[in-house]
Design a protein that fits this description.
CATH topology of the largest domain in chain A: AhpD-like
CATH architecture of the largest domain in chain A: Up-down Bundle
Largest interface: A-B, 69 and 69 residues
CATH class of the largest domain in chain A: Mainly Alpha
Number of domains of chain A: 2
Distance between the termini of chain A: 50 Å
CATH superfamily of the largest domain in chain A: AhpD-like
Shape of chain A: elongated
Mean pLDDT of chain A: 97
Low-confidence stretches of chain A: none
Radius of gyration of chain A: 19 Å
Oligomer: homohexamer
Structural class of chain A: mainly alpha
Largest sheet of chain A: none
Chain lengths: 135, 135, 135, 135, 135, 135
C-alpha cells in the first residue's frame, strides 16, 4: 500500500497538467501502460513534470551510452538503495531492451562483487592510492 | 589510515601465498603497480586469494558485457555504498579503459536520477505493478 | 510476516512491564491504538521501555523544533534507510500533525534533490571546502 | 582528492555556460564564494545547469517549508547517505540560516532515534498496520 | 514476486549443474528444504555454484568464530542493507543454531545503538583519533 | 574537520554535566583517554548523557553475548553504514578485547559474503519462504 493515492486514468484525465504528462509518457513510450510510479507522483504536478522531464533527458534521449547500459546502471543503483519498486520496473525495462540471461548473470556478478569489495574497503579503511588522483 | 597493516613489496615477497597473488596481479594487469586494496587484504591470504580470483573471473574474463560497461556498474554500486576507495580506484580503471568525459557525465546523470527516483519510490511506498512480474 | 511474535492486547496485559508501557503509550497519545512496532518490541521489555522513553523524550517533549518538523526529519531518515514500516508510520503521524499536500511535495523534492547531490558528491569525491570548517 | 578536475575562476570565466551558472550562483547567494561542488560539476555543463536549476527551484524559491527546515531535512538525508561533503556544506548553510545549538541537538537526536527504530523495524520485519494505509 | 523464475525441484533435477548444487545443499544441511534464494540463483549456474561454495567456506566450515556468532554478524549486515529476505532467512538460521530471546534482544540493542552512533559520527564528521591508528 | 567544536579537557572540566560524563568514562574504562566522539557530543549535554548511558547499558554491562562478539556486531553495522570513525574506534576496541587476526579475517569474510547475498536477494527480489515465518 502506498503512502499517497494512486491516480486512476479518469482522475488523471480531469487534471490538465497530469493529463499532459500521462499523454506524453504514452506517446514517447508508444504504449498505453502508465505504471504506478507516475500515478503516485500525480499528487504533486510540479514533481511529476520535473521527474518525467529528467527521465526523458537522461534515459530516453540518445547519448554515448546505449539504452541497455543505462538500465544496467539504474538497476545497480536501485539494488544498493533497496528500492524494490525500482528494481522491478528497471529489470522489466532492461528485458524490454534486450537484456539476455547471460548479461543479467554478469550484472548480478558485478553488483555482488562490488558489494563485497566495498564492504572490505570500508571495513579496512584503505587509504586511496595517490596514483588514482586527478591532476 | 587503515585499520590493518598495508604490506610492502618486501613483506609480500617473503610470504609465498601473498607473493603468488601479487605476481599474478602484475602479470594479468601488465603493470608493476599493486594498489593498497591488495596490500591490505594481504593480512588474510585466504581472503586475498578468493577476492583476486573473483575479480579475475568477473571483471577480467571476457563476457557479454564489455570491460568499460562493467566498470560503470562498479562505480555506480560503489557510489551508493559510499566507498570512497572504490569510487577512486574504479573511476581510474574506467578512464584507463577509455571512459570519455561525455560518458562520465551520462553515468553521473543516471546515478543521480536513479537516486532521486529510488528515494521517491521509497518515500511513497509505491506498490509494484503486476505487469513487472515474472511468469 | 515478522521475525518475532506480535503481542496481542491480552498477552500484553498479562506482563506487568509490557502492560505499563502500552498503558503509557495510550495515555500519552490519547488513543487506544497500539501499532505493531510496540507489539514486536514487547518481546524484549528492556528494549521496549528504553525505546518508548526515547520517543517520549525526543519526539513528544516540547523543544525548539515543532512536532511536524520532527516528523519530516524522521520520514527523511526512514526513506534513505529503506524502512518501509517507518515511512508508513511517520507519514501517517505527519498527516495527523497537519502535513499538507504542498508540504509533502516539498519534502519529497528535498529528499530527491539531496539524494542526487549526495550521489554526485560521492561519485566525484569532492573535497570539503575549508570555508565549511569549524573553529 | 576529487575524481575530476575542480575548475578555477579563470577556467570558469573562459567557458560561457559555466561562467553563466557561476555568475548566477554569486548573484542569487549575494556572495563571491563558489564552493567545490559547483567547481566539480563544471566538467559537465548540462549537469551543472540542471543541478543549479533544481537547487534554485527546490531550496531557494519560497514554499510552505521555511529555509531552515529545508536544510535540516537535507542534513538528515546527507547523514544517512554518508555524504561527508554534503553534511559539511549543509550544516554550514543551516548555521547561516540561524540554526541554534539547541536545534542542532534536536536534529541529532531525531536522526539518531530514527536510525535506531529503522534498524529495529528492519531487523524485526514488522508488518505495516492497515491503519497507516491510504484510501 | 521475484524478477526471475524460481526453479522447481523438477526443473532443478533436469539440469545437471543445478541438480548437483541442490543435492549438495541437501546433504550438507541434512534437510530436504531448498529455500527460494537458491531457486532464484539457479538461473545462473555459475553464480549458483560460486555462491554455494562461498557459503560453505565461510559459514559452514569450522573457524574461530562459532556458528551462532557468524549468524549474528550476518543478521546485522542484512538489517543495515535492508535485505528483507536475508533478515528472515538468517534469523531463522540463528534460531536453529540456538539463538535465545535474550541474545536476540542484545543483538537488537547493539544494532540499534550502533545505528545511532554511526549517524551521530557521520552528522558531526568526527575526525578519527590518532590513537586508533595502526603501526 | 568536524561540523562542531571538539571539547578540550579544560572546557569539559568547566561544565559540570560534561565533566561528570567524562569522569565516568575514565572510571569505567580505567583510562584517561577520551576519544573525539565524546568531545563532539559534549556540545549537547543531554545527548552526551543519554548516549553514554546507552553505551554502558548495552556494550559494557554483562549479558549473554560476550564483549568481543558485541564489538564484531558493532563493526559489521558501522561498515555497512560507511561510518569511518566508528569502524576505526570499534576495530581498536575489538583488538583491545582480544580480536585475533584469524577472527578479523572471518569477520571480513562474513561481512563480504552477506553484502553479496544481500545485493543478490535485493536484485532478484526473492520472496520470503513461508518456512521462515513465526507462529
Amino acid at each position: 500500500m502506498a503512502t499517497v493515492k494512486l491516480w486512476t486514468d479518469a482522475e488523471a484525465a480531469a487534471d490538465p497538467r497530469v493529463a499532459a504528462v500521462f499523454n506524453d509518457i504514452r506517446t514517447v513510450r508508444k504504449s498505453d501502460f502508465i505504471n504506478n510510479f507516475w500515478r503516485a507522483l500525480a499528487n504533486q504536478p510540479d514533481l511529476l513534470e520535473r521527474t518525467w522531464t529528467s527521465v526523458k533527458t537522461i534515459m530516453i534521449a540518445p547519448g554515448e551510452l546505449d539504452p541497455l547500459t543505462k538500465e544496467l546502471i539504474y538497476i545497480a543503483v536501485s539494488t544498493i538503495n533497496s528500492c524494490s519498486y525500482c528494481v522491478h520496473s528497471h529489470t522489466a525495462a532492461a528485458r524490454a531492451k534486450g537484456l539476455t540471461d547471460t548479461q543479467h548473470g554478469e550484472l548480478l556478478d558485478i553488483i555482488g562483487l562490488a558489494s563485497t569489495t566495498n564492504s572490505l574497503a570500508n571495513a579496512l579503511q584503505i587509504p586511496v592510492d595517490p596514483e588514482f588522483s586527478i591532476g
